[in-house]
Input
Amino acid sequence: MISTACKSCLSRIHHIRRLSKSLTLPNPRRIHRKVANPFLETVASHLQKGVGGVDSNLFRGGLTVNIPSNIYNFMDYREFLKDRYRQLKDNDPMFSFRFFSKEAGFGSPNYLKLVMDGKRNLSDEAIAKFAKGLRLDSHESEYFRYCVQFNQCENIHKKKVFEAKLLYLRELFKVKNLIPELYDYYHEWFHAAIREMIKKGGMKNNPLMISQNLVPAISETEAAASITLLKKLNFITETPDGVLACTTAAEVDSATTAMAQKIHYEQMAELATESIYTQGPETQDFETMTLSMPPAMIAEVKTKIRELIESLSKTHGGSPGDAVYQLNVQFFALTKQSSTREEERRAAGANEAA
Output
């Protein structure tokens, strides 16, 4: 569904077309941003943000918009490769299949063409090289990776997971536009860990020391960037003598936060998995149980989990000598509810009868 503002701009553009053929550009896939027209700029802005799923095909036979390919509009990575290649080629006539292979680090000069045509699949290593050659940023690269895994996966259950992640990242892209710093905060696990380190007090702005204190360690550059991000979000401040301190940050829309937090949850779950093999009982503990319960008890269990988290958050230590720990609590279904299974059996029986 195209927004009302975008529809208005499109109407005005069609009117301009009828008045002057001079506005029609030779390439039907692009409108150059150099055209000084406020209506075109508005449409370009809408398209850049992926509003309403508008794409350049709406402008065939006339004006189109010269904007980077929005990867979040694609579920088929081969179609994205074709669109991205055209865009890069239009912006730089020197860009070619051979140029891409050299920039991405492939020996074959036509490797991109083979993948676009479905004659080659991408390995994890090749995905990273493609992201570099296509000039994708870190967030776009993540979406591209899941897009490739979704398209190439033959396991139907894993394929559904990849599809769900793609749809989630597509929605998260909107949050990125609204509050990019918050998007970045939940996108890397160590931002929350560094914030907690600073909360203990007495922490100097020393990225190297901070990076080496994390488990697993991160680079000094990543630590410095994290401190900058925390300052932008007003989560921390720095005194004239270089001491970092936590602040009472402004409230953020809960729906926006919940949307951005899913990646954070996934990363913390992955760190927990790694700790099983890299840490001992002196720094970790795992407890798990599988049980059945009626639907009416679900809300009660979730309330108890929240109460546990709130209780621990009020009693945790705040000494500079304290270490930072992560507590994950997961609660999820392993089977469908009986009513759901019964409905599926009835539906299956009706189909057989038909």
In short: The first strand starts at residue 203 and ends at 204.
